[in-house]
Amino acid sequence: MSQASASSATVVIYSGGMDSFTVLHRALREGRDVHALSFDYGQRHARELEVARRVCRELAVPHQVVDIRAIHGLIDNSALTDADRRMPDGDYDADNLADTVVPNRNMMLLSMAIAKAVNIGAGRVDYGAHGGDHVLYPDCRPEFVEAMNAVAGIANFEPVEIHTPYLRRTKAEILADGLAMGLDYADTWTCYLGESLACGRCGSCRERLAAFAANGIDDPLGYSYRPEPVADAPSEGEHDV
Q1: pLDDT, tens digit, for every residue of 143-165?
Q2: Count of CB atoms within 10 A of residue 202's CB?
Q3: Which end of the chain has the lower number of beta carbons within 10 A, N or C?
Q4: Cα–Cα distances in angstroms (integers) from residue 13 to residues 45, 49, 180, 238, in the given order
Q5: Are 90 and 201 within 8 A, CB to CB?
Q6: Cα 127 to the chain's mean position, in Å?
Q7: Helix 142-152 vs helix 105-120: angle between axes, to the nearest 10 degrees?
């Protein structure tokens, strides 16, 4: 990579979900030399990773899927990583939130993304933490991002910036930004279940549907069940890095 291209390079943590899809396209619109990075950590389905592969192939964006399933035994106490556990339905609240927490996920994924950035000479890592996640997940809060940014600035000979363009915005606002870019959100997957249709019942589906409702348009994904539209409110979504 030349010095000029290195200065514009960024590693985008890309799950295949709505938030990271928007972050990916935003970086491309900025003229960045984008390198997409996804992780297989033993999540209960691979639908998002399949979507991520297809999107990157169509965009001709370099894409690496890192197999870290060996750590599954360290993070399997979650409904997102244990297929034997019941996935909670409904909006996220204190009663069912803990079931969807993957321990220390963002710190681990960011650490590996920073390593890739240093390895290829990129000065930035982009990920999709957003305002709706703050009240629910410690590793999506501004304090966490600020602390990780400080560490990323001293952990290597060359500092890496952690860039979170939607850190203080809602999922509806992220969607509005993507729609303004002309993005097709049929090219994303949000549901916690990897079935042929999105379930419409899990907290992630409900937050996604609320974001579309807040923007006054229909979600292009197919659903096995569509609840009545609700106002966009802070809830989990993808916990998307």
Answers
A1: 999 999 999 999 999 999 999 99
A2: 24
A3: N
A4: 18, 12, 22, 13
A5: yes
A6: 7
A7: 30
